[in-house]
Amino acid sequence: MSGSVIPTARRLLASRLFLTLCLAATTIAILLLGALLVSIAIEGLGSLSWRFLDSFASRKAAQAGIKAPLLGSVWVCAICALIAVPMGIGTAIYLEEFAKRSRIKRLIQLNVSNLSGVPSIVYGILALAAFVRFFGMGSGDEPWTLGNPESFWYLQCPLGPSVLAGGFTLALVILPIMIIASQEALRAVPQSLRQGALALGSTRWQVVRLVTLPAAMPTIMTGAILAMSRAIGEAAPLLVIGGFLLVFQTPTNLMSDFTVLPLQIFNWAGRPQEDFHKLAAAAIIVQLVVLVAFNSIAIVIRQKLQRPLQS
Amino acid sequence: MTSFAARSAGEIAQRGRPHSPLRRRWSEKTIRAILFLLTLLTVVTTVAIITVLATETYGFFTLAGHPEISLWGFFTGEEWSPLLGAEPMFGVLPLVCGTLLVTAIAGVFALPIGLLTAVYLSEYAAPRTRTILKAALEILAGVPTVVYGFFALTFITPYLLQPLSSGFGAYNAMSAGIAVGIMILPIVCSLSEDALRAVPQSLRDGAYALGSTKFDVSAKVVVPAGLSGVIAAFLLALTRAIGETMIVALAAGGLAQMTANPAAQVQTMTAYMVQIFLGDAPAAGIEYKSSYAVAFTLFLITFALTWTGAIVLKRYREEYE
Fold first, then answer.
1. Least packed by Cβ within 10 Å: which of A30, A77, A162, B195?
2. Mean pLDDT score of chain B, rounded to an integer?
3. With contacts defined as CB-CB under 8 Å, which chain B residues touch A23?
């Protein structure tokens, strides 16, 4: 900005160079994404088949499949969603719509953003102590049980490395993300809508139930889907609670052993044989297809349902 | 407008009709209490994490029969060999060093590229290009980290690094660092872009009116104005890099050593925990307990970084209205 008012040739050149630099950076980012997708497609497409989706793990690469991890992922993520989504929305509602400005609210808010920065493997350690072992209570004795193993809601305590414990673990990981996304969605609802409803004599909860929550729902759901796509890909905390298990059956109840797709990928990718790398790549393709499907749903929701609300 | 307001008013009055003032007040209080309890759970989570880590770490330092373990020795020891040899050594510095090396490589790679991409998206790109690029970044952000680990192991090392130098083995810090960099790139990019877009248009217009080129506006006005947000984005991304587990467990190797050589194998704090929890050590043994001390160290480091980020955002944020 110094010098003459009219840009000199030199400054224009600097401007050009800068644009080139920015474009180069963007191109690198895109190229990397391309290289990632292409290299995995080349390596994995050959192993992808119906048999691969419908077989259990095996020591022989030619017979191994992902039936158990695929269904394990479905169970664990369903449990995770059922827990984390309502809890995240509830917490966000309290923080945005009920809590008064106070030190306590500020602390809770700071705590939520801190939780979102905690490495997922640390959540695994908490889950191992709290859910899997129940803080050492009842260890050595027979676990306390409820229901019989035939019913899907069969429970025992401590939970052990079961699908229910896995779902709880992932819920811990994504809860802060879910809270922050829901809070942002609620904050985007114009204040005038709340004031209007309050002026008509609604209580706080009626305002939330009838005005703010419906208005914020599309954005909240987009956030929920993005949070769930994080949960689908998590491996580290589940590795802490159960290690890698070779599972030869699909989950039948909440206490079943399980493994998930990312853990199976980790196991295959860590082996030296090239054949297993091919299997890992094929499993990654399945994982990415699920992911893209999830993201597309999020995009559709965002574009179709999001009516612009203006104050 | 009137009819809309009247209809909504009627609707609200009808659907939200109170049964009686008393019952209404009661249900309102119940719901409020339930939501408050949910919110308290987040605090309980933090307390529980700290309690579990602290008690298990205390158990590690006071384990009977291991007088060689001390707090001082743990934080200053330069050798970490819990599973090797007759006399295991517990000095956490090699693991911290490994983590920092991988994080530094990731940062050198991802921070400039992420910021430049953010500048491009916010200042240069046409709306259509921007939408497409943002979608690509969103995909990148959703890719599970184990996939990046696989990419590092089967693409970055054999096709990018080994042709450059024969010093790179199958496992090295460089490939893990680059893969972690790719992982944090979308975070750097989208958060920095939010910060840059929040800079008011009037600042740009003012600079143009003074005869600035686009470069002047971007680099001397917009980026400095959004700097607090950009730095917060950097810190958040580095926090994620430090806590990243699956990439380093796959690609960085398993040898804990103090080195700054990117071609060398390193073990990070998270990779050590994976090694232990995968079942390399008996559950009651000293090695197993040591993973909690490592986890606590990791937790404290990320906690400090997140805290710093929050302070930067709060203290140095420039408010424009």
1. A30
2. 86
3. 120
